[in-house]
Amino acid sequence: MLTDVGSGLSTNRRSLRKAMQMARERKIRAVAVTYPDRLTRFGFEYLKEYFNSFGVEVLVLNREEDRSPQQELVEDLLTIVTSFAGKLYGHRSHKVKKLKAEVKGALERLDTDDEHKAAE
Q: What is the pTM of this model?
């Protein structure tokens, strides 16, 4: 069994690379993930197709509840901001937490403004 602790944005995850190698060598039949974004934050369908091309099934154990496109966008933007801010300031930095909170607030205000405009 392989496990990975790291961001789904990272392309340098040892266990993911090992799983891809094992798929190429036909040493595994399935990859199980708790949620799609644990395998990769973006491009899940590409990785799923990659594994499928070697006869490896990708199993998602917990399906996420349906989210609106706006909710998905907010989550994706927060993930990107957190990742880049972490690289700049260090992942445990107070600056990262503050920046993340500010971006989240701004995105929520935009979403609320859109809802008000749609209601008019």
A: 0.57
